[in-house]
Amino acid sequence: NSELFTLTYGALVTQLCKDYENDEDVNKQLDKMGYNIGVRLIEDFLARSNVGRCHDFRETADVIAKIAFKMYLGITPSITNWSPGGDEFSLILENNPLVDFVELPDNHSTLIYSNLLCGVLRGALEMVQMAVDVKFVQDTLKGDSVTEIRMKFIRRIEDNLPAGEEITTQ
Amino acid sequence: MESRFTRGKSPLLERPLGRPRGEVSLSAFALLFCELVQYCQRRVYSVAELQSKLAQLGHQVGLRLLDPLVSRERGGRRETKVLSILLFVKGPVWRALFGKEADKLEQANDDDKTFYVIEREPLVNTFISVPRENSTLNCAAFTAGLVEAVLGASGFPAKVTAHWHKGTTLMIKFEEGVIARDKSLEGR
Which of B39, B64, B103, B177 is the most exposed place for a label (fewest CB within 10 A)? Predict the structure, then answer.
């Protein structure tokens, strides 16, 4: 049920605001928690969706917007604003289930309320060998008309074999 | 006092409460809840504290859930009898939260203040495994806090706790005044 989800997230953010004194710390904590969730979410996603390996960043973007967001949050953001090099794009969310019923008071104007989402995207993509930078560009809570998340591909993460397990040919 | 209030920037308060727009997947909620539990766990030193922190969070959620639920399910009319508020919790509240009614509602044999809501497999405990050293921990403490807030804000102050019994049982203990009032209502 989406209301329970929204309210639980709200309770979490409220608790974080009480525990940490400033918005920056809350933002960082939300990002970290999102990262932890993302790392586990990717396995659940791959198991349930049967999507194969994505060949490039564009495919990744499509999969995220059309399949993942729909599967977990019931919304389908649109993809726009591709950079000329094809390594950056924006996800536009018209409505964000995390912020139903939420208003940001004036003394928390630097709080990125939905920062958990950034962490989730970052963590999930890191597990499929992509290092990305994710951040909010527009936020309906701050008065913008839509919520926009900008994702930038940084590099492909090479598989690092743990020391001692290197494959040697004899 | 710091200004906690927005200056009416958004039309949020004028929005109708209507039906919720969409469903969110179970995994999304479960993952969020797990993270929440882990966060609380890092900041407390005992199981009892963890349960009370979870109950506090559940409390916040329950307070905010009550109004939309009452206005949708009961057309804005509040319950005045103990039995009807309990049936409300077991039925519509549970259904709105978890998609199904609670498994059982029972009254304690020896105590007319105490009732039990029994759920074999509570949704909040999916994907949570409790290690042996914390065996008294039950994350349904979150649900307990939620129900406590719902009952309290409806005018039936009670204490709700979660126990491992036939699955998960929420023990609801109403305050004296509530039962006395209920009896006098019935007498009329």
Answer: B177
Residue B180 lies in a domain: yes
Q: How far apart are CA A9 and CA A98, in angstroms?
A: 7
Residues 11-30 of chain B whose Cβ lies under 8 A from any Cβ of chain A: 12, 20-25, 27-29
Assess A145–B contact: CB distance below 8 Å, yes or no: no
- Inform me whether the C-beta atom of residue B60 falls under 8 Å from chain A C-beta atoms: yes
What whole-number distance in Å separates Cα of residue B126 and Cα of residue B146?
Answer: 18
> Which range marks the domain in which residue B136 is found?
26-187
Contact B32 A5 (CB under 8 A): yes
d(CA B105, CA B169): 10
Nearest to A3 by CA among B81, B104, B146: B146
Does B133 fall in a domain?
A: yes
Tokens of B121: 């497999």
Query: SS3 sequence, A4-47?
Result: HHHHHHHHHHHHHHHHCCCHHHHHHHHHHHHHHHHHHHHHHHHH
pLDDT in tens, B102-129: 777 777 767 777 888 777 766 655 566 5
Q: What is the mean pLDDT of chain B?
A: 72
Cα A116 to Cα B28: distance, rounded to the nearest angstrom: 12
- Please check whether residue B99 lies inside any domain of the structure: yes
Kindly state whether residue B132 falls inside one of the protein's structural domains. yes
Q: Which residue has the higher pLDDT, A11 or B188?
A: A11
Here the ipTM equals 0.78
pLDDT for B58 beyond 70: yes
CATH of the domain at B66: 3.30.1380.20
Which residue reads 């791959």 in tokens?
A: A46
pLDDT tens digits for range A36-77: 888 888 888 888 777 777 767 777 777 777 788 888 888 888
pTM of structure: 0.79
A81 contacts: CB under 8 Å, gap ≥ 6: A88, A89, A90, A150
The total of structural domains in chain B comes to 1
Cβ pair B3:A107 closer than 8 A: yes
User: Touching check for A9 and chain B: CB below 8 Å?
Assistant: yes
